[in-house]
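ok so i was messing around last nite and threw this chain in just to see what happens. nothing serious, just curious
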Amino acid sequence: MMPRVVDARHAGEYRVWLRFDDGLTGEIDLENELWGPVFEPLKGVAEFAKLRADPEADTIVWPNGANLAPEFLYDGLKATLAANTAAAV
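result:
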């Protein structure tokens, strides 16, 4: 089953707080993912901050049509949470 983003909020700079349909929540930094023509406008924080959760696409989207696959976000968030847990030990 593909993960679905059910809530998303700009969390400062290029960070996004996400909540998935299975309850996974947390912040992920997407600064290094903003490459290619569709993401170029998002390199300005004001434009990046316009993200929203799209219930039809099950992921985050921006007004210019940019989006990231929900499974990419899910795997990235899980890796970030695991790294943060390991660093805290």
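not much to say yet. The chain has one domain: 5-88.
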